[in-house]
């Protein structure tokens, strides 16, 4: 890696009146985004829970991490009415921080990455989103806002709904929507989920100001990702579904997947995309088991819960390229976590004055030191 390629460029001060900042240029930078969704079934994490299987920071280091949870607390009446247990979210954030900033990776890129900072985390009953960004990118984040929409009991409580985080990185706007939609495997229950989606898109709103003008609605942002326990099921009988799952017939199951049908119908989810699914359904498992619910003959009277891909990650419009879409194998709850990696271009504007300030700054000196260390390491490996 050359010194020039590792340097970060200064951000344009749009409010500056200095004549030296009147000349500016624009270019594109490519950044990698990790996104994951996990319904943890009200189970609090152990202090020694290893998040590496999920985050995979050594093999696939990214610049932004977005981790969405559902049911971080049991959906009991007290929790649904707003008596949130904040301690469990602190535990999750502590585990995420530890994994992202661990320096024992074999990857040189990961070893020399800047410390990650929590950009925003927010809990609404059982829904929790935690957004992290590389420390050297943090100064270029602006217009950070969140919006919560409850779609649960009485159409407004937060046991179902969404928590959305948006921000601008350099000159490009991002919006991440963590959702938990209506449950149910009966015929017609998918209409409730479609209604939740419509409600979330219409009721989520953000401040538009100040300068430059920021979008007020979800889909008006440049880069948009929807993640969560969307709860869409497979429109086949329990017996047919289990038989096809046992034969790994993902394509045949996908033909009857409710969410895929909605994406093709271009109604509630018009303009949204999902990558190909080549992994087993993520719901519903016996906790701490590799067996799907309803397969233990010794357990009588269990409700039917046919396997389904409840946990999904979608993106809207253009500008995002997906490189990975898979599941992880944690047995913490009755769901398996799902993760994706995207790359996207970000518009960056520099000024003449901005360059001058940057090259005289302490951050420039730190960049040089880090780059030289990395070059020496690469040289030793090539000898």
TrEMBL record:
GO terms for molecular function: inositol-polyphosphate 5-phosphatase activity; phosphatidylinositol-3,4,5-trisphosphate 5-phosphatase activity; phosphatidylinositol-4,5-bisphosphate 5-phosphatase activity. Residues 29-350 form the Inositol polyphosphate-related phosphatase domain. InterPro entries: Endo/exonu/phosph_ase_sf, IP5P_plant, IPPc. GO terms for biological process: phosphatidylinositol dephosphorylation. SMART domains: IPPc (SM00128). Keywords: Hydrolase. It comes from the Eukaryota. Belongs to the inositol polyphosphate 5-phosphatase family. This is Inositol polyphosphate-related phosphatase domain-containing protein. It comes from Daucus carota subsp. sativus (Carrot).
